[in-house]
Write a structure and sequence with these properties.
single chain, 3 domains, Immunoglobulin-like, four-stranded mixed β-sheet, seven-stranded mixed β-sheet, alpha+beta
Length: 383
């Protein structure tokens, strides 16, 4: 009798386990016969493989996974092509796609969040194409470097305004609002919570909604930590008269700078005497940094042999990102760990980023970006 009871109890337990809520995503991918389709979880630390299937000629697939305790992100992947989607219920999702335009031509029914995520994906791809087109035009000398930077900045500002009003602030509790926060351009976040007070407000709105609904979720805690770090990094310094130590001032009023590069070697600005120096303040984790560095690389390649050197100061809060971004750059790259609160940025009266200055071979500060109409011409005059 006891054995029968244990058997019945075990059967009930198994039945209970099998009734755990699951989500189902199914559909077809045309023209993908023999291709491997992967279902991956898009976690905070990266993608994690959950399941896979080898597609047949009909392209049909079906995946089932346990429903997450809080809204989560997933992706379908074939080679390097991906479809991003989110799951917040057990409602079935149906996908229609073809291999040739998997990342852009797909459709998902069953979730408004997934529809909005696709809209954001297409918008980001379009923005990236426009920026790539401007870079190509600059390489072909059809567009000046100054026009490139100004155009990219305006396009990014316009993009962010649209995303803020239509996707983030209108429904900060939705997964597509969270997805929007982490979109990238040229590998850098469009919304920069570490250096922009306006962008922190976007993260705050979504973090507040997540905290109310899912206070113990990993994404909630991570987003909350990002907001706290961003607020600390962009805190408003107390109003004060800036006193510049006399030992920091060298010839012709040049304020010396003494910071470490990615190898931990201290690099002083004043030791570059004899070179024409472009002193550059930058945040690598910003949407315009890639276009800005493209301009600098072009100038460096042209004039380094004639005596041009670049001394570039990072105000990034993320040290790892800075090291990764500067690993292949040929000029002097240092970082101020104080970020946007850098005393050097204050000494040089930096109002915006990027900002740059020209220093002649005698260590004399000759011009700043606001007074330079054509950077290349200004460099050639000093050389």
């Amino acid at each position: 009798m006891k054995k029968i009871c244990f058997f019945i109890l075990g059967t009930l337990v198994l039945a209970s386990c099998n009734k755990e809520p699951k989500f189902n995503i199914k559909g077809t991918v045309a023209d993908a016969d023999g291709k491997m389709l992967y279902l991956e979880a898009s976690g905070i630390e990266g993608a994690e493989l959950l399941d896979s299937v080898k597609l047949k000629s009909d392209g049909e697939f079906s995946f089932k996974q346990l429903r997450p305790e809080s809204p989560e992100f997933y992706r379908l992947r074939i080679d390097e092509k991906v479809i991003n989607f989110s799951v917040d219920s057990i409602e079935p999702l149906d996908v229609k796609a073809k291999l040739s335009d998997l990342s852009t031509g797909y459709s998902i029914t069953g979730s408004d969040n997934c529809t909005k995520i696709k809209e954001l994906t297409l918008m980001q791809i379009d923005l990236q194409k426009k920026v790539d087109g401007l870079v190509k035009a600059t390489q072909q000398n059809k567009v000046t470097n100054e026009v490139l930077q100004d155009s990219v900045s305006k396009m990014v500002d316009s993009y962010k305004k649209q995303v803020k009003s239509k996707y983030i602030f209108v429904a900060p509790n939705m997964t597509y609002a969270y997805f929007a926060l982490f979109q990238k351009l040229n590998g850098s976040l469009l919304f920069d919570p570490m250096n922009s007070k306006d962008d922190i407000k976007c993260f705050q709105a979504v973090a507040t909604s997540l905290t109310n609904a899912y206070p113990n979720a990993d994404r909630t805690k991570n987003l909350y930590n990002i907001v706290i770090k961003g607020l600390k990094n962009t805190r408003t310094a107390k109003s004060r008269v800036l006193q510049i130590p006399q030992e920091k001032i060298s010839e012709a009023g040049l304020i010396d700078i003494n910071l470490k590069d990615i190898k931990g070697v201290t690099r002083k600005l004043s030791t570059l005497k004899g070179k024409v120096v472009l002193l550059d303040f930058i945040v690598y984790q910003s949407e315009v940094s890639a276009a800005h560095n493209f301009v600098l690389r072009d100038l460096y390649n042209k004039y380094a042999a004639q005596g041009l050197q670049i001394y570039q100061i990072s105000l990034d809060a993320d040290e790892h990102f800075w090291k990764t971004a500067t690993d292949k750059l040929p000029w002097v790259c240092v970082r101020d760990e104080d970020g946007v609160n850098s005393r050097y940025a204050s000494m040089y009266n930096i109002k915006k980023i990027p900002a740059f200055f020209l220093i002649n071979r005698n260590n004399e500060l000759k011009a700043r970006d606001e007074s330079i109409k054509n950077l290349e011409d200004a460099i050639k005059k000093l050389l």
